[in-house]
Amino acid sequence: HPTLSVQRAALLPTEPGHGDPAGQELPLQSRPFSSYGSALHINLPQAPRAGQMLTLLIDYEAGEGPGVCWLAPEQTAGKQKPYMYTQGQAVLNRSFFPCFDTPSMKFTYSATVKVPEGFTAVMSATSWEKQKDNTFVFKMSQPIPSYLVALVVGDIVSADVGPRSRVWAEPCLIEAAKKEYDGVIEEFLVVGEKLFGPYVWGRYDILFMPPSFPFGGMENPCLTFVTPCLLAGDRSLVDVIIHEISHSWFGNLVTNATWGEFWLNEGFTMYAQRRITTEVYGLPYTCLEAATGRALLRQHMDATGEDHPLNKLRVVIEPGVNPDDTYNETPYEKGYCFVSYLAHLVGDQSKFDAFLQAYVNRFKFQSITANDTLAFFLEYFPELKEKGVDSIPGFEFDRWLNTPGWPPFLPDLSPGQQLMKPADELAELWAADGLNMEAIEAVDITGWRTYQLVYFLDQVLQKSPLPEGNVERLSKMYPKISKAQNAELRLRWCQIILKNNLEAEYSKVKDFLHSQGKQKYTLPLYRAMWGGSETARALAMETFSATAPQLHVNVQNYVKKILGLQ
Length: 566
Fold this sequence. Notes:
Active site: 244, 332
Binding site for Zn(2+): 243, 247, 266
GO molecular function, one term: metalloaminopeptidase activity
Domain Peptidase M1 leukotriene A4 hydrolase/aminopeptidase C-terminal: 418-563
Distance between the termini: 41 Å
Binding site for a peptide: 87-89, 214-219, 518-520
Mean pLDDT: 92
C-alpha cells in the first residue's frame, strides 16, 4: 500500500538535468528508454518471513521523467495557467514514483497532494477530499497496476452529468463538456453492467485534457482522461467513451500480466465496446464502426507488411525495448477478431455474454496471460474442449497468438451494408472521370452519422488521387465535410487534401495540427506530408517547428523519426 506524498508545490518544470547526472549529457527528448528510471535495490537488515508486512519510507524527488508532463499556459485550452498531468501507460510511472512498474503487480494506494492556490488536484482514486491549505487527499481502495495511477493538477472545475459521474475540464470548456455528456455516461454504464457484471469502481468521471494530450482516452480508473477532440458539439464521438468505460472490466479489472499480450486488454475491450454500441445504437451502426476499425488494421498491415513481428497477438518485447514502441492496431483489431472468433465457436451470443461475465468474475483484480484466458474458455465450454476447437487447422489458438498477419477469421459485418452501400456508391461516383452530378446530387448525406461519413471518406481516400478537379468540387458540395469541426472528419479530409495534393486547402492541415496533438491524428498526417510533394514536405517542417513545443514528448519523437530529424 504505497503512500504517495507529493510535496512539490511549484507548478513549473525544473531544468532538464537538474540533480540528474544522466540528464546533463542528453537532452530530455532523446533519453533512451533505460533512463526512465533505474532499479532501486533495498537491503533489509534481516530476511523477512513470508507474508510479513513491511513499511518502507522512500524519500525521492520526481518531475523530469517522461511520465510527468508539465504544460506551459499556452499548451492549455485556457492559456492562462500551467498544468501538469501524469501518463503511466505503459512503463512511464517509474519516473513519477517508486513502484513495481509492471502490469503483473496490483496494489491499493493513497496520496496527499499539496498544490498552489488557484489549482485543483485530481487522481484516479475511489475517494478524494479537499483539506485546508489547498491539500487534497486521495485513496484508491481497489488494487490496480502501477500504470493506472494518475494525477492532474490544473485550473479545472467539474459539473455533474449523472448519478455517479461528473465531467472535469478547464473553465472555458466545462459548459461544452456538460452539454455533450449529460445523461449519456450512466446509460453506457448501465448497459455495461448488464453485460459484464457490476461496475466496481464507484464513480466514473471524465477529465477533458488540454489539446496536447496525445491519446483519445486513457482509462485511469474512476477518472478517464480524454482528448478535447471529443467535444464535437453533436455527441458524434461519444463511442470513444464507451471504449474507455469498457476498460472498467477489461484492462482495469482483468489485466494483461505483460505488455506483450496487450490484446487481452484491448481486444476484449474492443469486443465489449461493440457489444455496448450494438445494445445502444443497433447492429448496423456497430458493424459500420467495426468496418472503419478493420480499414485501420488493413492500412497498418499494408504499411508494415503482414508478416511484421508486431502483427502477432503475442509480441516478444526484448529487454530494453519500450513497450510503447510496439503500439499499433493489431492488439485492438486483430484482438477483436480473435475474441469474435471465440464467440463464433460458442455460436450463441447470450452464452458468450455469460462467459464474459464469468471470466471477469474469475479473474477480477488479477493480472493474467493469454494461456489463462484460453484455458478458462475451454474449461467453461467443455463441449468445445472435447471438439478440440483450439487446434482446428488454420484457426489454431497457437496460430492466432504466434503467427503474424491478417486475422484467420473476420466477424460478419454485413448488417452494416445498409449504411456502407450508399457510401460506397457515392465514393464511386466521385472517383469517376466525368462527374455525374445528377446522380451525386440525388444522394442526400444530411442524415448520415459521423461513422457513415468517415466510411465514405475512407473510400474516397482509397480511390485518391481523384481525377483532376473532383476534390475541389467535392469540397464545395459538402461544406459539412470540408469545413467540419469533428476531428475524425477533419483527419480524413486532411488526408484527402494531401493525397490529392490540393495545395489550396493545405491551411486546413496546418490548422488541424495546430489545434490538437493527438497521436492518432498527428502521425498519419506527417506521414502523408512526408510522402507527398516538395510543398507538402515543406508544410510538414514548418508545421512541426511551430507546434513541437505543444506536443507530448513521445509524439515529438515519433514525428522527428518520420521527418528524418533523428
